[in-house]
Amino acid sequence: MDLSQYTLFITANLPYILLGLTVLIFIALLVFISVNIKMSKLNKRYRRMMNGMENANIERLLLSHIEEVRQAVSKVNQLDEKCRQLDAITTKTIQNIGLVRFNAFEDTGSDLSFALALLDKNKNGIVLSSIYGRNESRIYAKPVVDGQSTYHLTEEEKQALKISLEKNS
């Protein structure tokens, strides 16, 4: 085919060729508008993200944030270890107290005698008893292991131990 045949073909089909080119230009215009809208949204997000970051290097900014996160993780690990240590210590501290006041002798007036149970988380501790009389006062201490004492307990001491054990549950 020579050049004259191309010219005749184009001339004969000129309306169809122009219509096709118009459709292609219209499609290109729609793609351009779509890309422009997306670029505008992306630009707004970028400006919002970079708000207050005058001449900031994003890579440097991200690296500094990563370092801050590493420091925070390190601090959390330290606090976790400290919490474990404190938890181990608190199981051995007095956590449950049972107190019963009573009148040991009829001639003394008020409830000046008492039984006091002091237990840790493992139900270990002591029962203290104070017997108050007009002429003298006595204090007794009895060990408690796993909620039981190897010594004979008075009714008041048993009651104080029961109160303390109920708080432990």
UniProtKB/TrEMBL annotation:
Alphabetized, the UniProt keywords read: Membrane, Transmembrane, Transmembrane helix
Superkingdom of origin: Bacteria
Q: Name one Pfam family in it.
A: DUF4446
Q: Per its UniProt record, what InterPro entries does this chain match?
A: DUF4446
Q: Which residues cross the membrane?
A: 16-37
Write the protein's name. Answer: DUF4446 domain-containing protein
State the organism named in the record.
Answer: Sporomusa acidovorans (strain ATCC 49682 / DSM 3132 / Mol)
